[in-house]
Amino acid sequence: MITPDLGRPDAADETQLGREPAAGEESVTPEPVDPAAAPGRLDPAPDGAGLRFSRPGGPIVVVCGLHGGAGASTLAYGLAAQAAHESPATILLCETDAAAGDVAALAGVTSPFSLSELAGEFVAGRSPAGGTLARAGKLRVIAAAPAVAPAVDDSAVTALMTAARRRHGLTVIDAGTARAPLTRELLRIATHVIWVTVARPGAAERARALLAGRLVPALAARQALVVRGVRRAGRAGVREQAAELRQLAEDCCERLVLVADSPGVSGAHVELGERRMLAALTALAGFFDDPGQG
Q: Angle at CA 83, nearest 5°, toward 81 and 89?
């Protein structure tokens, strides 16, 4: 198996091939992830959301919808793109669902291989032809055009992501929903998990059942809950729903972020400077602080 090489953080060529490390070069063979470690984060930039990462080895974040259509891809892209805008370290965004194509559409680029295809290339001992990554500005992207995913052992993907973490200030994975076996494996290696749901009747009850059920493994990662589509609590039903979601977050997560819908943020388009998106990302930025630092 070729050691995954996703490019050094200061490399001029963002699409280096997978290869064996040269003599004297540090290997990037996967090693266990310490979920408590989240190096590289700096104080907020004056005009940013505070998603500034200074060196490789930073958090590996799994963004997972509690149901289909929750907006996990939109949030994952917004988080990674804003971090890339603010950070001196390189930021990586990946999509697990080879058939989706959501991240590629949002980023406006397609990588030569999907995440599962790339893992398969390394397992087979091949140096991927045409490079491993795409680049959207400063953001590195592994998200191909929609295609049927090859049969690859999930452990090959988690090994690739563990190795990738060592090369990037922040690694963000759009993991779809917890129904997929690969998502459950990625949840095990994450340092941070962001659950995403839509504010609608019964959302808290369904989310609680999923998080307490067998689909979600025991997690060492820090967890946050992002709720989209929040409206003003002017009606009793809306107030009750908000209270249920807050209680869910207190029971299961460290942070609750409520996001109002905005025309600048949709499933097909994200404006990073849009006020509501920036507010949500600013609220999430504190999630990457060490526990107890506020």
A: 115
Looking at the 3D structure of the chain, how many domains does it have? 1
137, amino acid identity: G
| CATH label of the domain that carries residue 107 | 3.40.50.300
Q: Residue 124: inside a domain, yes or no?
A: yes
Burial 121-131 (b: 16+ CB within 10 A, else e): bbbeeeebeeb
> Residues 6 or more apart from 170 whose CB is under 8 A from it?
40, 51, 53, 58, 59, 61, 80, 83, 87, 89, 91, 92
In a domain, 252, yes or no: yes
Q: Residue 94's domain spans which residues? A: 60-288
Examine residue 22 and state whether it is found in any structural domain, yes or no. no
Instruction: Give 108: exposed, middle or buried? Use CB within 10 Å, 0-12, 13-18, 19+.
Output: exposed
Q: Give the model confidence (pLDDT) of 182-208 as tens digits.
A: 998 999 999 999 999 888 777 788 888
Q: Which two tokens stand for residue 28?
A: 């990037």
Whole-structure pTM over 0.85, yes or no?
Answer: no
43 domain-assigned: no
